[in-house]
């Protein structure tokens, strides 16, 4: 199989209990395989329809609500129902030479009031599925790791949100999951 760019590629995704003739799809021009990882065959992301997206969001929300109210994980996930990614930083990341994808690492940071806030660190991924231009070397101290490709941190919304009122207005799919 050649990995030459195709004119258009139709990505069929998953739907939530829909007739088989309805597909979540979008035409894209790209290489058939951007990167491969030996232990997990792709694809590493597929289009889905809105009902499946909302059902998946709701499933996590319901699981989180079963946790004790003082659970730090529950507090983090309830405080950050979504993390928004800025297009300009994503495009800069994916536009780096030899970048074939983006990896998201969940992380923890301090909010403006010193509270713990859930966030994401992004890094480009090369054709072998490895963090772009990074190599693990045993014994390397964290402070000695050199920045070799663009890393970004996303923490929107900063701090915790209340579950009522206009603070959730931009989170349409989350609101559907309630």
Overall 3D form: globular
Query: What's the story with the biggest beta sheet?
Result: 3 strands, antiparallel
What are the secondary-structure elements, in order, as H or E? EEHHHEEEH
Give the C-alpha Rg.
Answer: 19 Å
Q: What's the average pLDDT?
A: 76
Number of helices: 4
- Backbone structural class: alpha+beta
Task: Describe the protein's architecture and organization.
The chain has four helices and five strands; from the N terminus they run E-E-H-H-H-E-E-E-H. Strand 3 and strand 4 form a beta hairpin. It has a domain at 83-155. The radius of gyration is 19 Å and the shape is globular. The strands form two sheets. A three-stranded antiparallel sheet has the order 3-4-5. Strands 1-2 form a two-stranded antiparallel sheet. The chain has 178 residues and is α+β, with helices and mostly antiparallel strands.
Short description:
The protein is α+β, with helices and mostly antiparallel strands. It is 21% helix and 18% strand. The chain is built from four helices and five strands, in the order E-E-H-H-H-E-E-E-H.
Topology:
Elements: E1 9-12, E2 25-28, H1 50-65, H2 72-79, H3 87-94, E3 101-110, E4 116-125, E5 151-154, H4 172-176
Antiparallel strand pairs: 1-2, 3-4, 4-5
């Amino acid at each position: 199989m050649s990995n030459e760019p195709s004119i258009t590629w139709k990505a069929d995704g998953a739907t939530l209990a829909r007739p088989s003739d309805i597909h979540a799809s979008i035409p894209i021009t790209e290489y058939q395989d951007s990167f491969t990882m030996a232990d997990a065959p792709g694809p590493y992301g597929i289009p889905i329809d809105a009902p499946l997206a909302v059902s998946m969001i709701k499933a996590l929300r319901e699981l989180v609500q079963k946790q004790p109210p003082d659970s730090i994980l529950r507090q983090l996930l309830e405080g950050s129902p979504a993390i928004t990614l800025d297009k300009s930083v994503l495009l800069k990341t994916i536009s780096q030479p030899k970048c074939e994808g983006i990896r998201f690492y969940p992380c923890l940071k301090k909010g403006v009031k010193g509270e713990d806030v859930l966030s994401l660190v992004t890094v480009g991924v090369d054709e072998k599925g490895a963090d772009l231009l990074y190599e693990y070397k045993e014994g390397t101290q964290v402070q000695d790791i050199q920045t070799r490709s663009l890393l970004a941190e996303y923490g929107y919304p900063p701090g915790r949100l209340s579950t009522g009122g206009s603070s959730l207005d931009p989170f349409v799919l989350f609101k559907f999951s309630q």
